[in-house]
């Protein structure tokens, strides 16, 4: 039995980057608004949501990672030194991505066996790589006004303090860019040539410090002049609705088991691409596209020797990433090349090594989906999920082309490390799950939300995160999903600033559409 214990103007479910965008923009625009952020996991850093790259004590880091693992309370024995897992024997690499520190599997043995999630304040933003490329070509959402989308991407970059200049003076990265650019830049627009990867990080005394949710919030939680409250270890078990609109949320305190409701007319579900549709399903909000169009991108990697770079790659983690931007026709991949710390190499090497990665787009298909049980419950008491994802024949061909491309890139830099071949990471490894609450231009059964992320037919209910992205993407999706959250937050501010709003789409939604 639950009792009404509180009232909020806005409830945000999930404390990751997109939820933080809503909290920050709404609090800045309408300061009197009461905002409640609920997070099922604990705060593992101080301030809450800080990236774990700021944690230098190994014991403290272990405790933070274990606390983020939801149902798992054990320390993982295997870690990977980079996305290519070059420090793990080849036969064990797939397994290294099935149990990753700070994460827990969501559907072990399913069709995306490496799919993982985090349960802590900040979510995966306490551990992400912080890559923030802008989408281009077919990656962009064609029904959004280009200027509106670009403006929102700019806001997201400013909130995260994104820059591409942290390693501008590195001779190694500069030489890598020159070599690759000489072979790949012909015919590309100037802003899509080989270049440093935009990233949300700073370099402090030779150490990399990546941006987390605390950067986006900007001290909001500690400002007593603001009306923003964060409740940790608090599970949202249902979004409550009546007469086509949000009326509140049902919450369960995971420490005590007590259940309460919070009355509100505005809810943002930003619980990641798998748990956002899970909560909507548990709440009886089940549009036809819910959980469908599950999409990620495959990753193909190779360790390459850098010829002509002897003695130029210093030890330590502070190193940049060369970005080979996606191009629809000439390079249908998102490429990243990173020199590897020589102290992490498994064998003495006469040449420096680099990790060469390609993210490969996959076809968007309604049959690829996450489904939920009406009867079984998971560790948190929500409907058990199952992932169903099958690459298309065209996806297989694109992955084959990526294998050839990654070999070519390694030969432009030197050659593949002896014994290494292009490696396709196990499905789900990217952690970039998209499409499950996808955006659309009309309520035609193929989308869950409108162009400002409000769920069709449910006033006051917004969804956020990578699941909102409806397109076939290769680049890291975080910046795009934050930009879509900017558009949603603006619409929410419009609604909060008016005494009464009717209809499913405001003027902000109309302005966002071509």
Automatic annotation (TrEMBL):
For whether the record's keyword set contains Flavoprotein, the answer is yes
Every copy of the Glucose-methanol-choline oxidoreductase N-terminal domain together lies at 225-298
Q: Which InterPro entries match?
A: FAD/NAD-bd_sf, GMC_OxRdtase_N, GMC_OxRtase_C, P2Ox-like
Could you list this entry's UniProt keywords, alphabetically sorted.
Answer: FAD, Flavoprotein, Oxidoreductase
Query: Residue limits of the Glucose-methanol-choline oxidoreductase C-terminal domain?
Result: 368-485
| Keyword Nucleotide-binding in record | no
Query: Pfam families, per this entry?
Result: GMC_oxred_C (PF05199), GMC_oxred_N (PF00732)
Which metal ions or organic cofactors does this protein require, according to UniProt? Answer: FAD
Q: Which family does it belong to?
A: Belongs to the GMC oxidoreductase family.
What is this protein identified as?
Answer: GMC family oxidoreductase N-terminal domain-containing protein
Upper taxonomic lineage? Bacteria, Bacillati, Actinomycetota, Actinomycetes, Micromonosporales
């Amino acid at each position: 039995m639950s009792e009404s214990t509180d009232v909020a103007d806005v409830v945000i479910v999930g404390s990751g980057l997109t939820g933080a965008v809503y909290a920050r923009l709404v609090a800045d625009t309408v300061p009197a608004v009461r905002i409640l952020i609920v997070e099922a996991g604990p705060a593992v850093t101080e301030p809450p949501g800080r990236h774990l790259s700021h944690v230098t004590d190994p014991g403290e880091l272990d405790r933070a990672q274990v606390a983020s693992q939801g149902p798992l309370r054990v320390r993982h024995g295997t870690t990977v030194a980079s996305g290519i897992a070059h420090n793990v024997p080849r036969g064990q690499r797939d397994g290294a991505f099935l149990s990753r520190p700070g994460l827990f599997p969501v559907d072990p043995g399913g069709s995306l066996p490496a799919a993982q999630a985090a349960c802590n304040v900040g979510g995966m933003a306490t551990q992400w790589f912080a890559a923030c490329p802008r989408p281009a070509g077919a990656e962009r959402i064609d029904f959004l006004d280009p200027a509106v989308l670009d403006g929102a991407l700019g806001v997201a970059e400013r909130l995260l303090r994104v820059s591409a200049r942290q390693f501008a003076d590195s001779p190694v990265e500069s030489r890598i860019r020159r070599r690759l650019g000489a072979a790949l830049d012909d015919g590309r627009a100037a802003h899509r040539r080989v270049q440093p990867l935009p990233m949300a990080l700073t370099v402090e005394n030779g150490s990399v410090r990546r941006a987390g949710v605390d950067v986006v919030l900007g001290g909001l939680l500690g400002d007593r002049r603001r009306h923003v409250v964060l409740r940790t270890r608090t599970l949202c078990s249902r979004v409550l609705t009546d007469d086509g609109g949000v009326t509140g949320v049902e919450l369960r305190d995971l420490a005590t088991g007590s259940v309460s409701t919070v009355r509100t007319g505005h809810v943002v579900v930003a619980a990641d691409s798998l748990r956002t549709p899970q909560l909507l399903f548990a709440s009886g909000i089940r549009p036809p596209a819910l959980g469908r169009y599950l999409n990620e991108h495959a990753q193909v990697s190779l360790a390459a020797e850098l010829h002509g770079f002897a003695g130029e790659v210093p030890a330590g983690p502070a190193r940049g990433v060369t970005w080979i931007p996606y191009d629809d026709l000439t390079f249908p991949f998102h490429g990243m090349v990173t020199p590897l710390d020589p102290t992490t190499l498994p064998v003495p090497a006469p040449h420096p090594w680099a990790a060469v990665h390609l993210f490969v787009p996959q076809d968007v298909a309604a049959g690829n989906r996450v489904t939920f049980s009406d009867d079984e419950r998971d560790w948190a008491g929500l409907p058990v999920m199952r992932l169903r994802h099958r690459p298309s024949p065209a996806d297989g061909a694109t992955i084959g082309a990526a294998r050839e491309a990654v070999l070519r890139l390694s030969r432009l830099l030197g050659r593949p490390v002896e014994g290494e071949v292009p490696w396709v990471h196990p499905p789900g490894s990217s952690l970039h799950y998209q499409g499950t609450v996808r955006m659309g231009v009309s309520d035609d059964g193929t989308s869950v939300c409108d162009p400002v992320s409000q769920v069709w037919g449910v006033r006051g209910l917004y969804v956020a995160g990578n699941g909102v992205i409806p397109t076939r993407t290769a680049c890291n999706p975080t910046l795009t999903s934050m930009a879509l959250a900017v558009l949603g937050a603006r619409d929410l501010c419009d609604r909060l600033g008016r005494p009464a709003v009717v209809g499913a789409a405001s003027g902000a939604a109309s302005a966002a559409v071509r």
